[in-house]
């Protein structure tokens, strides 16, 4: 065990540094929702449609079809952290790609805007 101690300490330090770097999510504000809407229009609307109903022009050619973001269950859940995770990693076995190349701030903005679309289903 003594021989493993330096390695375990180094691994713990790396994990701690990574966790510290990934700070808390930003607060949902009108500004972040505006940023999320702009990002949605650029990155998501072609598949999910302008209103998030899964009816975007590019989505017509996809199998499986893009999901309706306004109603129904999300595969990984509808909590903000779960939506953020989906945007970050994508969904295996679907046409939902990873948007991990976007900044963390932009992915949070998309998360909040996506959840706003769900609230606008009335």
> Could you tell me the number of beta strands?
0
The main sheet comes to: none
The mean pLDDT is 87
Give the percentage of residues in beta strands: under 5%
Structural class call reads mainly alpha
Number of domains: 1
CA-based shape: globular
Number of helices: 5
What's the SSE pattern? Answer: HHHHH
The N- to C-terminal Cα distance equals 60 Å
- What's the gyration radius in Å? 18 Å
Assign the CATH architecture.
Orthogonal Bundle
CATH class type: Mainly Alpha
Classified in CATH, the superfamily is: Cytochrome c-like domain
Layout of secondary structure:
Layout (H helix, E strand, L loop, with lengths): L4 H17 L8 H14 L1 H4 L31 H10 L14 H16 L3
Helix pairs in contact: 2-5, 4-5
